[in-house]
Amino acid sequence: MICSFELGEGALTASVKDCIDIAGLPTRQGSAVFAEAGPALANAAVVDALLASGRWRIVGKAAMHELAFGVTGINPWGGTPVNPQWPDRIVGGSSSGSAAGVAAGVVDMSVGSDTGGSVRLPAACCGVIGFKPGYGVVSRQGVNPAYSSIDCVGPIARDLAVIEAAMTAMVEGFAPVAAPKDSDIRLVRLSPEVSEEVGQAFDLALSGLATPVLDAQLPSFDAAFDASLVVMGAENWAALGAYADHPGMGEDVRARLKAGGRHDADAVAAAKAVGAQLAREIDAVLEQADALILPTLPIVPPSLVEAQDARAVVPLTRLVRPFNLSGHPAITLPIRTAQGLPVGVQLVGRRGGDAALLALATTIAAQLGLQEKEA
């Protein structure tokens, strides 16, 4: 789950996903491809920021799905973290060790990365909170791959106050704002297709809110899922295609990597156009509301046996991936089905409104009974 060491003297503990550089340690990215990687020469910007704040102590690097290119967290080479509360089910990927370590209470917070749901998905699978900031809000300097037009560095924690503390440290000038009153929040619900048990859990959660919820549609939402796969695939091929025939690479990752190499410049441009259209649709809805609300997962986390078919679990990201393409901040709060399985409520805020979204999430979490609302 986590390889241990200590950096810093802060009271709050953190782990860092192993695609993020820490000086003096190899960045293996959960892959045999980089098993012999030399030590990183410098800390990633986000590591330096946490240490400079004086509040954080980094105690380890977290395991991950190989090359951050998968949604299950299953990793035969690097090790598959155990979902602390549901050990027969996937921990989720690609920030698998990050979510598992937080859920197990090993650390207060873990720094993950989210290219297509890779913070929010494992957080939901493990019953904790995962925040994807807006694109570019947290520096990606020292994060692998070096370039991505959709990847975001974000925190996973059990408590929203810890998420805010992490963002305050990681982002210069980030300032938490007061949680809004129940009556001041305007939410707009999206109703994508989900399984019956997820739908029932989500409806029950919304029925307990003290905040009115209106309905809306995003015409480009479904198309953005496929478009995001194109962008991620093409960019991963550009970054990692030279290793596609490495004998140590997992076959599931190899297949996805090579598939990404088939997307030409025209396909990528068309995919990004879908993202731009979705962003306009979301912006228009959020002119009249404070946040979108929708489920995080379309189904409950599959069992480890069910997840052996990697292609069958890609749709797990169907409700999270579009917001990577649009660039909006998004957060998942944990809820459970009637059978006690983990799912999530996802809130999506305005671009540039990261602090406001976290404040709103604090009020919604209190309404859901996840934590006490501050006076």
Automatic annotation (TrEMBL):
PANTHER family: GLUTAMYL-TRNA(GLN) AMIDOTRANSFERASE SUBUNIT A, MITOCHONDRIAL, TRANSAMIDASE. It comes from Novosphingobium pituita. InterPro entries: Amidase, Amidase_CS, Amidase_dom, AS_sf. SUPFAM superfamilies: Amidase signature (AS) enzymes. Pfam families: Amidase. Belongs to the amidase family. Residues 14-171, 206-358 form the Amidase domain. It comes from the Bacteria. This is Amidase family protein.
